[in-house]
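Reopening this ticket.

The earlier resolution said the output was attached, but the attachment link was broken on my side. Pasting everything inline this time so it's all in one place.
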Amino acid sequence: MCFRIIFSTFIQIHTNMPNKALTPNYIFETSWEVCNKVGGIYTVLSTRAKTLQDKLTDKVIFIGPDFWQDKKNPLFKENKTLLSKWRKAAEAEGLNIRVGRWVIPGEPIAVLVDFKPFLAQKNDVYAAAWEDYKVNSLHAYGDYDESLMFSYAAGKVIESYYRFFNLGAKDNVVFQAHEWQTALAALYIKKHVPEIATLFTTHATTIGRSIAGNNKPLYDYLTAYNGDQMASELNVEAKHSVEKQTAHAVDCFTTVSEITGTECRELLDIDPAVILMNGFENDFVPSPAKNFNEARKQARKNLLTVANTLLGTELDDDTLIISTGGRYEYKNKGIDVYVDSLNRLRFDDRLQKNVLAFVMVPAWMKQAREDLKSTLKMLNKKSAKTPAKLSQLPEPRITHELHEQHNDKVLGQMNWLDMQNRPSDRVKVIFVPCYLDGADGIFNAHYYDLLIGNDLTVFPSYYEPWGYTPTESVAFHVPCITTDLAGFGLWANTLKGAYSEIEDGVKTIHRSDYNFDEVSNAIKDTIVKFSQFDQKQVNAARKAAEKVAEKALWKHFIKYYYEAYDIALRNRDERLK
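Inline output:
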C-alpha cells in the first residue's frame, strides 16, 4: 500500500472529530505488562503514564497481574495506606489485591491482582462470555486460561472501585484494555458497569502475527484471508474469538498503526476508530551534552573491549558499530535478512571501515561464557599502559552459552553462510543472546547503555505493528534502518513526504512478502553509504535522527488518546439513552 494513501487516511481519521470533546475524569487501564516488563506494551504504558498522571493526578489507575507475591517486584512499590478502605472492601468481596505505585516517571497508582483463585471458575466465566458476546473458548490452550482469568479479575477490580466510590456516568470514567489477554475485562465492564466507556487496543492481531510467524505470505494475500478460517487453520480460535468479539463490542476500538488497521479490517472485520501511535518520553536519554558524550564514549569502550577480547582483534574507535535488537522472532523482526545483509557486506569493496555488528536478541541463554568472563576480568586488572595481546577465543561469535546451541537460528544461518569472524573479515558479527539488564556477566550494562554507542542500527521487520526499537535508536541520536512494514517506518515516511533516507535519520526500505534479496541489498548499500560519510555528514544524520525522535514524544501523540476517549464517551452516552 502506498504510504501517501496511508497518510491521507490517517489525516482523515484524525480530523473528522466533533468540536467539543468529552474528556475523562477517571482512566483505568489494564495490561499483562503493568509492572511486568516483557515487551513493547510495557514501554507504551510506562512512558505515557506521566503525561496522563500530570493531568489526572491519581485518577489514572493501572491494573496488572500479581506475579511477585513471594518476592519483591522492582517495578512496584506497595503502599498499604493508599486507598486502604477500598482495598479492605475489595478483599471482603474476594479480590486479593495489592495497591501501590508503579515505579516509573509519574508513579501512577497500580493495583496488582492475584487472578489464580478465579481459575476454578473458568468454565462458568467462559459460559457467560459465550452467552453474552459469543466468545468461543472451546479450543483454548496454553496461556489463554491465565490471561482471561486475569482479565476477568481486572474487570471485577474496576467494578469494585467504581461502586465503592459511588461513581456514575457524570464522572466520565473510561477503561482501556490492551491486547487479547485483557479483552474479557472490557466485555465484563460493558455488561456489569455499562456507565464506564470501554476502549480496546490491539497492538497486533492474533491472526496477522500467526500468519507471519508460520511463514505464510501475509501482505499479498491479506484481502483474501478470512480471519475466522485462518484462526481454525492456525489453531488460535479462542484468542481470535475474544479479540474479534471485543473489537466489535467496545465503545471505541483502536490499534497502533495504519498497517495494523488494515489487518483489523481484513481479519477482524472492523476498522479501528482511531490510530493510537506509540509515543515515548526521552527522559532515559542522558543530558546535557557532556553526560551524553561521556555515556556514548563508555558504551563504545564496553562494546569494543568485549569484541576485541572475544575476537583477539584490536578494533579501534573508528570501527563502524551496528546492532539489531528486540524479541527473537527470526523472520518477523527481520533478523534473518539482517544477518544475510552482513554476509553480503563482507564482499563489498566499497566498504570504507571495519564493521562490528551485534545481534542483541535474548535467546535460550544458559550462562555467560566463563572463558570470556575470566579474560575480561584479567584485562580489567592490568594497567591500561600495558594491554595484553589476545588470541581469539573458541567460537568467537557469541558472548553467552546457550541451551541447545547447535539448534540456534542465528548461529545456524552464520554457519550456512560461512560467517566465522576470521581475522581477515572486515565485518565481524557477534551474537549477544541475553537480556541486557545490567547483570549479564559480560557487558554488565543495560540495553540503553550500549545502544547509545552505536553508529547505526538495523530493524528490517517483516511484521511490526509499530516498532519501539527504531524509536529508541533515534532517541539516542543513532540513525536507523527499518521497513515500510513497520508502523514507525511508515510514520517516518510521512515526515518527509517520500521514502525516508539515512540522511533523514531513518532509512525506510520497501518490504513485501517476496523481496528478501532486495531488502538485504538495500541494507548492505545503506551501511556502505554510511561508511563513506565524512564526520560532517555523520553529525547531520545523527541530528536528523534526534529531530525525528522529538516528533514522536507523547506530547505530540497523546491527543489521539483523547480523541479515542471522546469517541468512547459519546458512544457510551448513546447506548445509555
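Reporter confirms the inline version is readable. Confidence is low (pLDDT under 50) at residues 1-15. Residues 214 and 486 are 18 Å apart (CA to CA).
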